[in-house]
Amino acid sequence: MADVLSGVASPSDVRALPEAALPGLCEALREAIITTCGRVGGHLGASLGAVELVVALHRVFHTPQDALLFDVGHQAYAHKLLTGRRDRMHTLRQAGGIAPFLDPRESHHDALAAGHACTAISAALGLLAGRRQLGHPGHVVAVVGDGALTGGLSFEGLNNAGGSPLPLVVVLNDNQMSISANVGAIPALLRTRNARAFFESLGFTYLGPVDGHDLGALTRALREAKASSRPVVVHALTKKGRGFPPAEADEQTRGHAMGPYEWRDGKLVRSRGGRPTFSEAFAQVLGEALERDPRVVAVTPAMLEGSALTGLKARFPDRVHDVGIAEQHAVTFCAGLAAAGAKPVCVIYSTFLQRAYDQVVHDVCLPGLPVVFAVDRAGLVGADGATHQGAYDVSFLRPLPGLTQWAPMVGEDLAPMLATALQASGPSVLRFPRGTLPDLPPELAHAEPEVTGPSAPAVTAAHGQPAPDARSVTSGRPLSAAVPGGASTSAPGQPAPDALAVSGARWLKRVPGARLTLVTLGPLGLSALEAARNEPDWSVLDARRAWPLDEAALLEAAAGGHVVVAEEGTVRGGLGSAVLELYAAAGIAPRVKLLGMPDVFLPHGDARVQRTQLGLDAAGLRHAGHALLGEERR
Length: 634
Description:
The protein is α/β, with parallel strands linked by helices. Among the domains are: about 1-265, Thiamin diphosphate (ThDP)-binding fold, Pyr/PP domains (Rossmann fold, 3-Layer(aba) Sandwich); about 280-430, Thiamin diphosphate (ThDP)-binding fold, Pyr/PP domains (Rossmann fold, 3-Layer(aba) Sandwich). Helices cover about 35% and strands about 15% of the residues. The chain contains 25 helices and 19 strands. It has a 7-stranded mixed beta sheet with strand order 9-8-10-11-13-12-17, with helices on both faces. Helix 5 (about 50-60) crosses helix 11 (about 215-225), helix 15 (about 325-340) runs parallel beside helix 17 (about 355-365) and helix 21 packs across helix 25.
């Protein structure tokens, strides 16, 4: 079967194959996808389910003269294999390798870059309108998963396209799944007789439903759609994960992203899980909050699996809401919950929160509603690349009045920060990265607090340096006392014992008369602590809040005349910019170096390697400090 695929270097080769060879081509494509994802990981299930669909599309339409736009692109691995990228598929999602989604810079057969759902119909209609206006020939096809029909942008596109005379072809790849099973009324409607009436009422010719794994039926339907002079929907019923038994048996996600793994003797062998992730740790402390307070409600836009909420959904089915791929709705739904007196926690990726910015501003921040945003995947995300890098949440949220932005450094920070946010009278953000929980340095884990006043608990900083007015994350207890999962002694409906202790920055190392202070946000505090370990005149300040700033602590940091601010987000408008604004307002001018994500869209790669390349590891922070001081790197 692989021999069939080896002879296919472009879509024209697909069209040249005899019909009898196509089943073998589909089998070879599935084998290649399974092998690739086993080696490097990737979006397995959706691509396996779309193999026949992709082959039929390339039999009927002629790219790049005809444009194929895949919504998201995680179902398009067969398209990549058929468009000259087979020999490089082993580099999928790796630094310098094949992109995780679609990208015209990689192949002229990719019509438009995309990595978020619901964009294909609008983009395809615009592309078709532009081609017609400029006199360019060719057809335009939008391949849309039924999961994307939970998103408002898809309906905006359908509304516009259905009222247009342009012959847009929308291929609905209906597998009843987003990452997990679809929610809401539309996915249910699609499997009834009302599907035809639904699309026809919007102005489309409806073809289907078609068996999405029957090449003959698919080809006939697509040829009919190609010949149409008006907008058409081709409704194809497919099975996510088809052809790979472990994916087909996975009832939760149908093998959405299963690699790396090995397929040995008919059995799936996967690497064992390691340390818990920030997402898992947050889900644990969120579960404790749900248990403690019946007013707490969790909301997520189709990210139950990605944000480790499936267990909470099973435990609290009426208080954990998956609203589908509908970020705008998720945020405004939370606003309504808060207005009713509930305590909503919107669990959402940084890059997906971008899609609901107006709702954050208008529906949450303007009325000052106490919605908590748990911003997952903040910072570098690795293999998912530019469309998913959590680079901008600090900078686009920081200007919003009344919105507090927290960033835990370690897992032990999550419970008190969430409890503090849930007790706040206005909106709050907790941003945390993709990745496993870091170890808490022993000197912090065992540091006993020094209380200097009734409302000013403090923690002894690293290396025996006193921190008489630093704030403790654990209400006067050592960090180790706030480990997620610890028993709570609070009454139902009341905050945890350590709920209200988080306020302002935290000194990790405080040196009297320090020449330089490293100021960080989130887990970078641990790298800064390591960078300063052998520097007797360096202090380290964990900002903990991107906004509002702890002005007293940051002004103290400037006293030595040298400050390095490091954050895992864009340097334009982030924490570093806020610190510079503070110093300008105070009329002081220390030498300041800003470290973070540069003014580019960072590509896919290994997040740890990228952190090193950006100077955000201990060595990079140490180098930046010495360079700022005008010293040789040690």
